[in-house]
Amino acid sequence: METHFLKPKIKEKFIHIILIFLAVLLTMVIHEFGHYITGNALGNSMAMDLNGTRPIHGNFVEKWHLPIVAISGTIFTLLQAFIFLLLLVIFQTQSLYPFLIYPLIYRLVPYIVSLLNPERLGRQDKAQFAQYFGFNPWLLIVPVLILLFIFVYKGTKKVDINWRQISFTTIMSIIFTIIILFINQVIF
């Protein structure tokens, strides 16, 4: 009887892990696709992988394309988070939660790393946008992170996610991010 009780829990945990992986992969693809589609729409031939998008010929057709393409990934990530918040509110299922929290993790971790290693900040999307227009990148970074946090907070409350679930999802997300980035580096 005890093994019968454990099987649904194991199956549920396995499904949750698969959903976390899919959330990580989908978020990375959506973010990079935002750069890719914007760059192409502006007339640049773009190349994309899971950790970057760039003009095939090395430079943008026009210099002003850089900040627009840079910020578009963040806009797509914000849209993803908003759409998954709406879906979570409508369907009220914890299964959608990884797709809501990962955009925050995906945007937060690089900026935490940038605090520890400041020269990495200039490579980030919002920093490139801010540098082009001559303002402090944190004036854009902080509001985006706050907005993503608000989405996550509202979703967390709506489907009653506890700290243990948040911690597990965050740790697994970071592990999957590292694995995907490693595979991306080897392949591309």
UniProtKB/TrEMBL annotation:
The chain crosses the membrane at residues 14-37, 64-89, 96-113, 133-153, 165-187. Keywords: Membrane, Transmembrane, Transmembrane helix. This is Magnesium-transporting ATPase (P-type).
